[in-house]
Amino acid sequence: MPPPVNGAPWGLWLVALAVALVLGLLAWWGLRHWLAPVPLTPPAVVAPALEPPPARAPAPVLQPEPEPEPEPAPAPPAPIPAPAPPPPPTPQQQVQARAREAQAQVQRQQQRQDAIRREANRSFDEYERQQREQERRERRYSQ
Questions:
Q1: If I label 52, which of 37, 58, 80, 97 is the partner at 20 to 30 A Cα–Cα?
Q2: Do the beta carbons of residue 23 and residue 31 sit within 8 Å?
Q3: Helix (H, G, I), strand (E, B) or coil at 136
Q4: What are the residue boundaries of the structural domains of the chain, listed by start?
Q5: Residue-wise over 95-118: b if at least 16 C-beta within 10 A, else e?
């Protein structure tokens, strides 16, 4: 690999050269379009517009058509009846609903207690582990 030029590595010079090339191309393109703008329409399309249009036959006069009779408006749709309210629960259904709710409440309470118990066991296990490590360290340093 050749040595750096003027203290800068070759890669930096190549990047600077690429940037200069891109900026030069952009400047050339901009000046070219600024100094010599491209016409919006080619001359072949502009030239026929300068000639008078060819003579045409007059358009026939159209008679207005008679207006059709308006159709009668359709009758509004019948309103949709509201759904009937559900019948009141029977005493047996009420008892069953209360039993389901009580069972769900007991189950939620048991789950809460299980979670508390698991957390307490985890905390106690962590405490015991720390105590064992402390005893091990004390025995090691006392020897």
A1: 37
A2: no
A3: helix
A4: 1-48, 89-143
A5: eeeeeeeeeeeeeeeeeeeeeeee
Tokens of 13: 């010079």
Per-residue pLDDT tens for 19-62?
A: 999 999 998 888 777 776 656 655 555 555 556 666 777 777 77
What's the mean pLDDT in 13-18? 88
Distances (CA, A) of 14 to 4, 8, 28, 138: 12, 11, 21, 66
Instruction: List Cα–Cα distances, 127 to 38, 118, 124, 130, 141, in angstroms.
Output: 85, 14, 5, 5, 21
